[in-house]
Amino acid sequence: DAKTTQPPSMDCAEGRAANLPCNHSTISGNEYVYWYRQIHSQGPQYIIHGLKNNETNEMASLIITEDRKSSTLILPHATLRDTAVYYCIVWEKTSYDKVIFGPGTSLSVIP
Amino acid sequence: DAGITQSPRHKVTETGTPVTLRCHQTENHRYMYWYRQDPGHGLRLIHYSYGVKDTDKGEVSDGYSVSRSKTEDFLLTLESATSSQTSVYFCATGGGPLTGEQYFGPGTRLTVT
Are the beta carbons of A41 and B48 separated by less than 8 Å? Predict the structure, then answer.
């Protein structure tokens, strides 16, 4: 079973920030938080990952709470092309096979 | 990702026939993975490889076998296809556990009638 829980769906207005929450209350100290997204019919795409500090790249920002039990992926200015299913995954880097994708959050960006 | 291709992209086959799906990468990544994706189940790992001739099972490996004779190719074989194996199959590559990111191919839609 996935170690994360996410809302099944969310809407966001085009141009506004999309904030996607993820709960991972059982995360252990050596597990990272990864985010992927999957645009309809395509393979998943890596977005960002972090351990305990906030992270930012050209696609998104990742905010991890101090107790690491939850995180938020932020798409600062959502566009229609950001409509996708977003997966939050926790993963221990020494595990070869423990990347488990849950059902994710279906984000719809609305014009 | 342009560096990962899958073939065929679509296939329809009959129950009981053998099927082989191919994943080819040009990224020289050590690790390769096969997933299946079904409605209500998300992505599930079938098998993975951590080097040439080094493979291991994932969470849904029954009915599937894999082979990796070259770094760039990872084959998934259904020895005797069943209707429950109708799915979309994704191949992924990556540098392995220490790097984290995986890069996915475009997928193969397999229908077993």
Answer: no
DSSP letter for B80, please. S
Pick from A90-94, B90-94, B105-109: least confident:
A90-94
**Which residues of A sit within 8 Å Cβ distance of B?**
2, 32, 34, 36, 41-46, 49, 87, 91-97, 99-104
Tokens of A87: 């997966």
Closest-CA distance, A42 to chain B, in angstroms, reads 6
Of B4, B35, B97, the CB nearest to A93: B97
- Rounded to whole angstroms, how far apart are CA atoms A78 and A75? 6
- Whole-angstrom distance, CA of residue B96 vs CA of residue A97: 9
Split chain A (111 residues) into runs of 10 and give each run's mean pLDDT. Answer: 87 97 90 92 91 93 96 97 94 66 92 95
Mind giving me the DSSP string for A45-61? Answer: EEEEEESSS-EE-SS-E
- Chain A with chain B: Cβ pairs closer than 8 A: 61
Half-sphere exposure of A76 (CA within 13 A, CB side): 7
| pLDDT, tens only, B15-36 | 999 999 999 999 899 899 999 9
Question: Which tokens belong to B31?
Answer: 């690790």
Instruction: Report the length, in residues, of chain A.
Output: 111
Cα end-to-end distance, chain A, whole Å: 35
Evaluated on CA atoms A57, A21, B39, A92, the torsion sign reads: positive
Tokens 């079904």 correspond to B38
The Cβ-side half-sphere exposure at A109, using a 13 Å CA radius, reads: 20
